[in-house]
Design goal:
The chain has about 200 residues and is mostly beta strands. About 15% of the residues lie in helices and about 35% in strands. The strands form two sheets. An eight-stranded antiparallel β-barrel has the order 3-4-5-6-7-8-9-10. A hairpin with a 4-residue loop joins strand 1 and strand 2. Bound molecules: biotin. The site of biotin has 17 residues, from strand 9 and strand 10.
Length: about 200
């Protein structure tokens, strides 16, 4: 005699060995009772979805947060940075509102003055790839530069500050105001922390 095809019992993921007629008569087998007798977690009694430990979910969440590009400290601007002109800046601790102060050492100047370390002050948003702004008040000349930009974490997990700046120089009179502001871009990358 030709055997009728066995049906797949989807709840258990195993083939039901009863004939289709038997299944129709008695319905699908219950699994709650046998699992009381066997140890739970065995092949016969796999753990129910609601029994998956919370710790496993927490572990998965922490792994996701530690994946490249998502480290919690990245794009907090505190630390040492260098740009494409070779200028260096150091940013101190952030306040609870994201405010910071620091120092800037420019590699270039539009003046004939000797370059000196100058103070900066700024503020950043508190999100994963934050926008920020800061002003450098040059100490060796009467000019100021405002920078605005955004911190990105690139495909290699490296932080990059993409900025634009306006450098305002001193105009001797209102007639000279028209060419007193330069504009440009700088890209900053993080320098490793100095040994303490
Ligand atoms: C001046 O020359 O008036 C003061 C120094 C300005 C340096 C500028 S600011 C924008 C650009 N980025 C730098 O790192 N340095 C120059």
């Amino acid at each position: 005699m030709v055997e009728p095809p066995r049906l797949l019992n989807q709840a258990l993921g195993r083939a039901d060995t009863r004939s289709p007629t038997a299944i129709k008569r008695r319905g699908s087998r219950r699994r709650a009772e046998p699992c009381k007798e066997h140890s739970p977690g065995t092949a016969a009694c796999p753990p129910a979805a609601e029994m998956v430990p919370t710790t496993s979910l927490l572990l998965l969440l922490s792994l996701a947060l530690l994946a490249p590009g998502l480290s919690v400290d990245q794009c907090k601007l505190t630390g040492n940075w260098t740009n494409d002109l070779g200028s260096n800046m150091t940013i101190g601790n952030l306040s609870s509102k994201g405010e910071f102060t620091g120092t800037y050492h420019t590699a270039v100047t539009s003046t004939t003055q000797q370059i000196k370390l100058s103070p900066l002050t700024g503020i950043q948003h508190n999100n994963t790839q934050p926008i920020f702004g800061f002003t450098v008040n040059w100490t060796f000349t009467d000019s100021s530069t405002v920078f605005t930009g955004q911190c990105f974490v690139d495909k290699d997990g490296k932080e990059v500050l993409k900025t634009m700046w306006l450098l305002r120089s001193d105009a001797k009179s209102i007639k000279d105001d028209w060419n007193a502001t330069r504009v440009g871009t700088n890209v900053f990358t993080r320098l490793p922390n100095k040994m303490e």
